[in-house]
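From the shared-data thread, chain only:
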Amino acid sequence: MSDLSCLDSAGQTPVSTATAVREADFEFRGTAAEYFRIWIVNVLLSVVTLGIYSAWAKVRTRQYFYRNTFVDGASFEYLADPIKILKGRIIIAVALGVFAASQYVSLALYFASAVGLLLLTPWVLVSANRFNARNSAYRNIPFAFIGSVGQAYGVQARAALLHVFTLGLGAPFAHYMLTDFVASNHHYGNERFCFRKTGGDYFGVYFVAFVMSIGIVVVVAGVAGVLLTAAKPSSSDDFAQGGALVAVAIFYGLFILPTAHLKAGLANLLYDGLEVGPYTMRSSQKTHEVLKLYIGNLVAVACSLGLAVPWAKIRLAKYRASRTGVTLVGDASVAALQGQQVRGAYGDAAADLGDFDLDLG
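Structure, as tokens:
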């Protein structure tokens, strides 16, 4: 799919005749103090209004992060209407409520509803991307997503078959297929995104994370063996329980390493593989740097009882921006894509309330 989407209407890879080529780095200019004021108001009003204000909270948060993300001297914009998001959330919340209640009516109805929700996943994927793209802009030119629900069903079907016939080993290639579909169906103005990475690239990132995970299992098993050996037959149950807790804590604590590797690697694959017309993006996140960020953020949030969440988010945003850039050829301005209409926010709401993971990197 990505190879075809990288070609222009004449079947040739777009090439600019402009001679001016320059590198532009992303920059995030927000501060923890500024965002803390927005975050604390969002939390308090969302609680007081029983979640109704969460639609406005989401828009205010995205607007802050978008307008503080700069590249080539201009920032991004988020244009969504919170009323539309609220309406979508209400409808999706009612649908999920009916699904949850169906288990008390009939087991068959419950499973049928579960299958129905699963079948709606491609619609959610397309609707959420279409809504978010149309309400995101750079230099007053909106983005657009032109993928169809039918195409999304095809991607989901192939990914599901890949999972089944490889017993889950094909997960990296399934991730690649989904990313390729989403990325290559985005437009900025009249320029279509092109995604240059391959399934093999994704397999490499996942394989390293898998090897790390196996190493962690071996380490934890070794620690557990040492603790069992040190325990005497007369040892109390408290000692055994304490040893088990130590092993579990080590196990989950160490898994932050493959998690950091995956997050950095997948972000690099996504952003380093994107081309928009003659403009090429680049990303260079490092596993050890992301690991330090995660550990620092977790400690700060835990010690502050959650009050350091804004600081952690700003810290992460600054790092991601500092490791992302774009090669610009000629004028960065492009014509607005015609014929794209703002759709409803139902898909976006479903992604929030239904906990669908649309994070590709």
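Residues 1-5, 8-18, 353-358 have pLDDT under 50 and may be disordered.
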